[in-house]
Amino acid sequence: MEDDILDEELSMMYEESAKMKVLDSSTFMKPVKNLRVKKPLTLQRDRTVQDAVTLMNQKRGSCLLITDKNRLVGILTERDIIRKALGEGKSLSSIKVEEIMTANPEAFEPDDSIAFIINAMHVGSYRHVPVVDEQNQPVAIVSVRDILSFIAEHFTEEVINLPPHPIRKTKEREGA
User: Fold this and answer.
1) N-term to C-term CA, the chain
2) Three-class DSSP labels, the chain
3) In a domain, 169, yes or no
4) Are 41 and 55 in contact (CB under 8 A)?
5) Segment 7-29, tens digit of pLDDT
6) Is residue 13 part of a domain?
7) Residue 3's pLDDT is what?
8) HSE-up of 16 (CA within 13 Å, CB side)?
9) Is 115 part of a structural domain of the chain?
10) Are 114 and 154 in contact (CB under 8 A)?
11) What's the CATH number where 133 sits?
């Protein structure tokens, strides 16, 4: 009887491990279209930085892809706004996004691998990278959060079962 229960438990464990996703180098060779990403927020290059801030606030975004005739020409982040506009005391309603955007950002296509995205983010210190179609029209934006979510999916049980706070050693001496 006990052997039957043990066999059943082992069987269930093997079935679960077969269903688990494996995270290895081949995992990162999958195309970027396998990531769950948001549709990009876009804005025309001749709009003001105030328009960009308003759109970011409305859509709760931290990055915009800047377009001209629906083609990617730049990327604008919160960091760009702080450093290049506010940091220099410029009026947000008087400057165009094209004046402070990062022009011609490195962009990827849906069939490019996740590894290429991670490498670009690492080497270029990017927190967001655009994904475009064959006509250079924005189709997605990949964020560091998207990459972390992809990795966390491979360790669902380990992440879900963590205690609410890290277990740390005591910082105070004990005893006399």
Assistant:
1) 55
2) CHHHHHHHHHHHHHHHHHHCCCCCCCHHHCEHHHCCCECCCEEECCCEHHHHHHHHHHHCCCEEEEEECCEEEEEEEHHHHHHHHHHHCCCCCCCEHHHHCEECCCCECCCCEHHHHHHHHHHHCCCEEEEECCCCCEEEEEEHHHHHHHHHHCCHHHHHCCCCCCCCCCCCCCCC
3) no
4) yes
5) 666 566 555 554 556 677 888 99
6) no
7) 58
8) 9
9) yes
10) no
11) 3.10.580.10
Residue numbers of the domain that contains 146: 22-160
**C-alpha distances out from residue 79 to 4, 6, 106, 127, 135, Å:** 61, 57, 17, 10, 28
Instruction: Output b/e per residue, 22-45; b: 16+ Cβ within 10 A.
Output: eeeeeebeeebeebebeebbbbeb
pLDDT at residue 50 in the model = 97
Task: Please state the domain count of the chain.
Answer: 1
| Contacts for 165 with CB less than 8 Å, ≥ 6 apart | none
Is pLDDT at 126 greater than 90 in this prediction?
A: yes
* Residue type at 50 in one-letter notation: Q
Residue 11 Cα distances to 76, 112, 131, 146, 160, angstroms:
52, 38, 43, 34, 23
How far is Cα 137 from Cα 66, in angstroms, rounded to an integer?
10
Q: Is residue 118 part of a domain?
A: yes
